[in-house]
Write a structure and sequence with these properties.
Layout (H helix, E strand, L loop, with lengths): L1 H29 L1 H8 L9 E6 L5 E5 L12 H11 L5 E3 L2 H5 L12 E3 H11 L2 H12 L2 H14 L22 H11 L3 H7 L3 E5 L5 E5 L11 E9 L3 E10 L2 E10 L2 H19 L6 E3 L12 H35 L1
Parallel strand pairs: 2-10
Antiparallel strand pairs: 1-2, 1-9, 3-4, 5-6, 7-8, 8-9
């Protein structure tokens, strides 16, 4: 009987130790702190600058260097179209100029002398990001692209995008052209007030037809339109210097949210980072997480002032001339030595 009692006691002690161990693991894993950590949305954005903003309050839900000035690429075209639609009727006909036709651009190629409606040029500029269409709209509005750019810069100042400046209507690279992700959300918010812009950025495919019957079947560069039902629309951008850029508008739990990214590494990462921003916005808006703003020094960030860059470029050109001169002298000396040897 005593042996039985001792065995029972040992069994009970082992059971108690096992239960304590299980309880410890439970507390460790399911403690309020652990649960709180579990509900938080971790965001890992590749790009140097990104933001998600609540349209209703203007509150930044997530930000990574939201006020750093970077090249805008073709996100510029949102402002181009806004300014054009303030002056031109969508049914107005525009003849493609030599300058517009010769502007470096993606397909479809617009040919000098072709005639398109403003409406179609808007779709070409916003859906397919055709630079020739942007230049054509600028010329139809203000006569010359240079005059149109002044209207663009006035427009962004009026809507409060004070850290934005343009030098052309297309977003092609050049010194002195920049924006911020925070400014891009302001630009998107105003752009969506134009019914034609809202319609264009939400359209997946569209058929363009010139006055002489030439047809272009275009597809939106925003691939998330096929993947996200809650997306209102967006505008992509890319140049080698700007890298991949995107500004968009979403409905998140019945709330309007703007996202913007500048300088992402590739197009696939751009979509992933945008989705991260939307998920983070949802977590914050539903009270599961707190807003986050991260500030850091990025090597890839474009400097605000271009004067130093211009001086540097002059120095590089001077150095290249010196190298060429030295190389030429050496080649002449070598040739002379060779003749002596022969």
């Amino acid at each position: 009987m005593t042996g039985y009692f001792n065995s029972f006691t040992r069994f009970t002690c082992k059971g108690m130790r096992f239960m304590c161990f299980i309880l410890f693991i439970y507390v460790l894993v399911y403690s309020p702190e652990a649960l709180a950590q579990e509900t938080k949305k971790q965001v890992d954005i590749d790009a140097p600058s990104a933001v998600a903003v609540d349209a209703q309050t203007g509150k930044v839900l997530y930000g990574k260097n939201p006020h750093i000035k970077l090249p805008p690429a073709s996100t510029t075209k949102l402002v181009t179209v806004m300014v054009a639609l303030e002056k031109l009727d969508p049914e107005h006909k525009v003849t493609i100029s030599r300058k517009a036709a010769r502007t470096p651009s993606v397909s479809p190629k617009l040919v000098e002398g072709e005639v398109y409606k403003v409406r179609d040029l808007v779709y070409l500029a916003l859906m397919r990001s055709v630079n020739s269409a942007a230049v054509a709209l600028a010329e139809a509005t203000a006569g010359r692209e240079e005059n149109f750019v002044k209207l663009m810069n006035d427009k962004v100042q009026k809507i409060g995008a004070k850290d934005t400046r343009f030098i052309n209507a297309s977003g092609l690279p050049g010194a002195g052209q920049y924006t911020t992700v925070y400014d891009l959300t302001k630009i998107m918010s105003h752009a969506l007030a134009y019914p034609l812009i809202k319609e264009a950025v939400h359209t997946r495919v569209y058929l363009i037809r010139s006055e002489n019957g030439k047809e272009h079947f275009i597809q939106n560069t925003n691939q998330l339109l096929w993947a996200e039902d809650n997306m209102i629309g967006g505008k992509t951008g890319y140049t080698r210097r700007a890298r991949h850029c995107f500004v968009s508008a979403y409905k998140v739990n019945g709330r309007l949210v703007y996202t913007a990214i500048l300088g992402d590494t590739n197009r696939e990462q751009l979509w992933k980072d945008t989705q991260q921003l939307v998920e983070k916005a949802e977590y914050v808006l539903t009270g599961k997480d707190e807003p986050v703003v991260k500030l850091s020094e990025e090597k890839s960030v474009m400097p605000v002032s271009y004067k130093k860059n211009q001086k540097l470029n002059k120095k590089v050109k001077t150095d290249k001339k010196k190298v060429k001169k030295i190389s030429k002298t050496k080649r002449a000396a070598n040739a002379k030595n060779n003749k002596r040897t022969i």
